[in-house]
Amino acid sequence: MKTRVILTLCVVFFLGVVSNANAQVTLVAGSPEDKAFTAAMAETNLDAKIKLLEAFEKQFPNSKVLPDIFNELMGAHRQKNDNTKITEVGERAIKVDPENFMALMAVSRNFAMAKSNLERAVTYAQKAVDVLVKKKTEPRYNEDAAWKQYIDSTETSAKANLTYVRSIRP
Fold first, then answer.
1. Cβ distance 132 to 158 under 8 Å?
2. C-alpha to C-alpha distances, 59 to 71, 82, 94, 101, 164, nearest whole angstrom
3. Tens of pLDDT along 103-133?
4. Residue 52 in contact with residue 36, Cβ under 8 Å?
5. The whole model's pTM is what?
6. pLDDT tens-digit readout, 22-80
7. What range does the domain containing 41 cover?
């Protein structure tokens, strides 16, 4: 069981790295939004990084890269072992992007570990699996071997998370 949770966390962390690379493609180089995003991603001090990510969210509430900001913010809070903040940020991420499988998995896992909101944990875990299955129908899945491997391994983690969450639900 712990192996599943650890595997899920590893996948979620990797997702943050992948989403960071995707975000930079959608920003206009040199724009204030790009500069704020780049500064937040480059920051190595965890507390400073969190402040920059939160400032980005406030300054650019309609940004197309806000899901990436949330994923990075969840990762920063994970490094601080702050599950409450991971859940708070994850819930905001899901509101902005209901198909953010990284946030769905993280929040579901946190609910399961706390043995609270178990119905929502199952709903989120199932949604993460569904989103990943849907990703397999996109052209990129068949065109990019690394992406295919990533989606497949993430789907395996999402399914393990779903099994775990269902097993603890009364």
1. yes
2. 17, 24, 19, 25, 38
3. 999 999 999 999 999 999 999 999 999 999 9
4. yes
5. 0.81
6. 444 478 998 999 999 999 999 999 999 999 999 999 999 999 999 999 999 999 999 99
7. 2-168
Query: Cα–Cα distance between 52 and 39 in angstroms, integer?
Result: 8
Q: Give me the amino acid identity at 48.
A: A
* Residue indicated by tokens 């959608």: 26
Residues 112 and 139: their CA atoms lie apart, in Å, by 33
Quote the tokens at residue 150: 């990533």
Instruction: Tokens for 83, please give them.
Output: 């599950």
Task: Using the CB atoms, write b or e for 109-123: b if 16+ within 10 Å.
Answer: bbbbeeeebbeebbe
Nearest residue to 41 (alpha-carbon basis) of 65, 12, 20, 59: 20
For residue 28, give the CATH number of its domain. 1.25.40.10
Q: What region, left, alpha or beta, does residue 117 occupy, with left being phi > 0 and alpha being psi -120 to 50 degrees?
A: left
Q: Which residue in 136, 141, 147, 110 sits closest to 125, CA to CA?
A: 110
- Please state, in angstroms and rounded to a whole number, the distance separating the CA atoms of residues 119 and 20: 31
